[in-house]
Design brief:
The complex is a heterodimer of chains A (882) and B (89).
Chain A: E1 12-21, E2 24-30, H1 34-40, E3 47-48, E4 55-56, E5 69-74, E6 77-83, E7 93-97, E8 114-125, H2 129-139, E9 145-148, E10 164-167, E11 170-175, E12 180-185, E13 188-199, E14 203-205, E15 218-220, H3 221-231, E16 238-243, H4 247-257, E17 261-267, E18 272-279, E19 283-290, E20 293-298, E21 301-305, E22 308-310, H5 313-317, E23 322-325, E24 330-333, E25 340-342, H6 352-369, E26 409-411, E27 416-417, H7 418-426, H8 432-439, H9 452-463, H10 484-488, H11 505-510, E28 514-518, E29 521-526, H12 534-547, E30 550-553, E31 558-563, H13 567-574, E32 586-593, E33 599-609, E34 612-617, H14 622-635, E35 643-646, E36 651-657, H15 661-668, E37 684-689, E38 692-697, E39 706-712, H16 716-727, E40 733-734, H17 737-746, E41 795-802, E42 811-813, E43 820-830, E44 835-843, E45 852-856, E46 861-867
Parallel strand pairs in A: 1-7, 8-9, 8-13, 9-10, 13-25, 15-21, 16-17, 16-21, 30-40
Antiparallel strand pairs in A: 1-2, 3-4, 5-6, 5-7, 11-12, 12-13, 14-22, 18-19, 19-20, 23-24, 26-27, 28-29, 30-36, 31-34, 31-35, 32-33, 33-34, 36-39, 37-38, 38-39, 41-44, 41-46, 42-43, 43-44, 45-46
Helix pairs in contact in A: 2-6, 3-4, 7-9, 12-17, 15-16
Chain B: E1 3-6, E2 10-13, E3 18-22, H1 36-44, E4 52-58, E5 66-72, E6 78-83
Antiparallel strand pairs in B: 1-2, 3-4, 4-5, 5-6
Classes of the chains: A alpha+beta (882), B mainly beta (89).
Chain lengths: 882, 89
Amino acid sequence: MTRLASGGSRIDRGATVRFTFDGREMGGLRGDTLASALLADGVRGAWRSIYHGRPRGIVGIGPEDPCALVQVTHDGISEPMLRATEVELVEGLAVASLAGRGRLVPDSAPPHRDKRHVHCDVLVIGGGAAGCAAASAAAAGGARVILAERTPVLAAEVAPAEELQVLTRTAAVGAYDDGYVVLAQRDRLWHVRARRVILASGAVERTVAFAGNDRPGVMLASAAAAYVERYAVAPGSTAVLFAADDSGHAAAEVLERAGVGIAAVADARDGAVVCGTEGGDALSAARIRSGGDVWSVPCDLLLVAGGWNPSLELWTQAQGTLRWDEARAAFLPDEAPDRWTVVGAANGTRDPATGVAEGAAAGAAAAEASGFPAGPNGHVPPATAGTGRPPLALFAVEPEEGEGWDGHYLDLQRDATVADLHQAVGAGLRSPEHVKRFTTIGTANDQGRTSGVLTLGVLAGLLGAEMGSVHPTTHRPPAVPVPFSLLAGRDRGVLSDPVRTTAIHSWHEAHGAIFEDVGQWKRPWYYPRGDEDMDAAVLRECRAAREGVAMMDASTLGKIDVQGPDAAEFLNRLYTGDFAKLGTDRCKYGILCTADGMLFDDGVHMRVADDRYLVTTTTGNAAAVLDWFEEWLQTEWPELRVHCTSVTEQWATVAVVGPRSRDVLAALAPELDVSAERFRFMDIRDADVAGMRARVARISFSGELAYEINVPAWEGLAMWEAVWAAGEPHGITPYGTETMHVLRAEKGYVIVGQETDGTVTPQDAGLAWMIAKGKHDFVGKRSHRRIDAMREDRKQLVALLPEERLPEGAQLVLEEGGPMVGHVTSSYDSAALGRPFCLALLAGGRGRNGETVLVPLIDRVVRAEVADPVLYDPEGARRDGA
Amino acid sequence: MLRIPCPYCGPRDETEFHYGGQAHIPYPADPDALDDAAWAEYLFVRDNPKGPWAERWSHSGGCRRWFNVIRDTATHKVISSYEAGEPRP
């Protein structure tokens, strides 16, 4: 085993932690990551790559690692696609290696995750030395400061302060406008609005493209050194260093002090490179080229120090810009986003002391900008040019004689090589954004941390372009992968969306209703008896409504109380009909169009006083219609004296439908004259019904004699039960939305959103009769005169009489193989007609009465006859009762 | 996420608001007097500038009032807000 005898700043040697990896029992130490424990156990090439099936091992030490993906199960919760480098070892972890692709476990227990929304004066992202200095300085004067660090450990001391909140194990994943940053803690998602943001996210070492650079044992030099320092794990026994940057030599020294032999050093600045590797599942030698010679050096660890990429994902998400710095061979921050400052290695500052001074100064300045006294801040020493040699911008190493570029890996997680990049450029792609999509480089869950700049460098070389002219691709949230369960938090299951039920819901449940979701509402769909299926129940319910009496809970219809001296004028400007002429205690059907003339909503509206209407909307559109009213009132017609109030939930509505409905109402309201002459169609009566004060309207959505009894919601259930009892001698039958749909379709009544889809005018829907002739204007009127709205071949509402029941959405053609000329919008079996029928939108449909259209289904073609949409009782004889 | 200054409530998160497209496109005084092209201009044609532009927002999760915002479409920076009906500053 390779655990070193001493050292390891993060481990507790007294505490062994047991876990399994691919079924094998293993042990690590408290403080280990999964990656450090695996390396300590000698695990090397445990992974296979997603496309090429090549052995892969641990490359890095954080979210940049492209290979070591694992599925982790603990406490019944199974999470796919975690990075071994970031999983903290805990007792009983069951780990499986993944070949680049995870799998959701449907029966995994749901993790308990939550969200917080907070404000702060200064948010510091990154708890390295610079970030800790920034947080200390910012918090010293009393400012509210949040310090977010991705790992469990801060790199430095932070001076305690009352308003300082330190969040470890917390990665910043998204940066948005105006100082809005989303942080992902393990089980909590933080939405932070900060006055100032200090980015101290550090830098990530990059690799170099050479043949076989993906072989297990090839590691980032800084990562190998950090495994020694933090976990006392030497990732090998004999190492070769391949460096283009001084940092590689420092890393090699760390390893050497830990007893790792340094077999060779190839510094590209001296003309020596690693041009290949040897070995099977693990590295056995590095091939070094210098001058004209190539030779093999046996080793089990190859340290690659290809230079440093400042971690600026969040910077660019927040719309900060980048520039290529030739001297530092890196993309550095250029123009800062509003409210943002960047410090330390993320700013390209390599000297730690300078980074700390930058952090302290930025923290003090951010506190001051938020209105707090600056604490003792650091003095920024003049930037040191660096004592060492400048890095070399080295991206790819020429292959050996006779070899190609197909083993030079750029993106190890996507198995994309320099050869793939050659192909992309050969296909004519130039922009890095296009190359990214063609090669998929940078699209895996490491977000191109090791591959992005490397790919740009190789691309610039292929195009013969300056590095500064090739711009990095846009970073998008999340900067590190976030589980959906964290984004969802508690908004799952019953809490994912409010459930709305009517005052009568408990009765529906008790009587076996099957429910349908209509928007957020639960509405009874049908009430099966015995072992009835839906078709049988609906046929029975329809017969009851047509032949006897039936009842429905209509409480979910949207209701808007429109009041004010200009209420009539207001409705006249929006609805197609004339509501000024409507008498008090009368109702009228109204349709609403958008300005482009398309049907938007409909409903029956009651005029309950000279200056007051009760407007109803479709169940799903209640909020949208109220918004529509407010928008026109506030932005176009502020002079109108009108107030609109939603009263959907204040009223319960019981619809009593069918030829016997008058008898039921008469029994319930003996003082009400229910005769056809005194209580006419579309009349409203305030009456005492079953001892409750009710507003009764003679409205029909079925063509039958029908009444809607409205009571305050708290009396809804009592009214429903009273109607149920009074209707019992007549065999009153409760019915749901499906029967309602059949009854209205038999009469050719449209349902907004079913027959219409935002491209249907009232004329298309056969509702031209609803448009008042005398009105100068209403919203949408002018659009009905557009050439397009007057085309005779527009899709128009028709009924179809098909040979068999058709699926809704079925397409219509005039001849086999011909173009689509329409589609089925509603399709039912009709008890009254004794056959299946449909409503459909058909091009030039009104001129095709009696013609036959074809309905091609997957395995057959069904013929259907076109008919007028009103199939049942076209004379309207049943409206006053049979 | 934008921070939008509601003229009535003060600065609030974008999630409290509902977007309403370009501001200062009044409903024509006499739609019937417009030919098809002019009416189509009102219905369908909107500016799409890079830089400051005036747009409508409704504080739908707050006071439910409509107002206008000047926002830079390139940087997302909200420059000012003002009540519906006021001229563009």
